[in-house]
Amino acid sequence: MADQNYLVDSDVLITAKNLYYAFDICPGFWEFLLYHHREDRVFSIEPVRKELLRSKDELGQWVKSKVPKDFFRPVDTDEVKNEYAQIEAWVNNHKNYRDHAKSRYSKSADGWLVAYSKAHATTVVTNERSEPNSRKNVKLPDVCLEFQVDYRNTFGMLRELGAQYDWAGENE
Predict the structure, then answer these.
(1) 81 vs 26: CA distance, rounded Å
(2) pTM exceeds cut of 0.90
(3) pLDDT at 1
(4) Gyration radius of the chain's alpha carbons
């Protein structure tokens, strides 16, 4: 997977901040993302940026002050819009999903992630898990599977990119 590019969902960053890669515990995670962005391997899309900037917390500040604007790719190309229209039609016509699940999905960045990834052959990175029989939620992995878009969780991306977080403390 040396040539793979990763498209990061907001839940990856939110979960990292709130749990295992908090800014004060593991600043290396955030530098790792920015390093791989500079290598054109890790990025996201503008709708994710908008989701993250709604929060006035440390993650929102990181996005504003540390993340280059080009980390978040635009979704306004005809190719991405066409893919998005197909995804929205599939979700809206899906017999299992309840109306509130369809509505919530259409307001999120998820459809745009799949559309961008489909148009640009990237791998979506999300912490969501597939739930093909869910009626209450449209899960990002299930849409990826339907549209033949590759996806990973955070740890899959980190492994494939060769992440290693070594503690440089005292040796006994």
Answers:
(1) 37
(2) yes
(3) 45
(4) 17
Tokens of 96: 């299992």
Work out the pLDDT band at 171, boundaries 50, 70, 90: low
CATH topology of domain 6-160: Rossmann fold (3.40.50)
Q: For residue 164, which of 125, 155, 172 has the smallest C-alpha distance?
A: 155
Cβ 71 vs Cβ 36: under 8 Å = no
Closest CA to 83 of 50, 122, 51, 48: 122
Q: Distance between CA 140 and CA 14 in Å, rounded?
A: 16
DSSP 71-107: GEE---SHHHHHHHHHHHHHHHH-SSS-HHHHHHHHH
d(CA 146, CA 58): 35
Residues with Cβ within 8 Å of 43's Cβ and at least 6 positions away in sequence, in order, are: 5, 6, 7, 8, 37, 70, 71, 72, 73
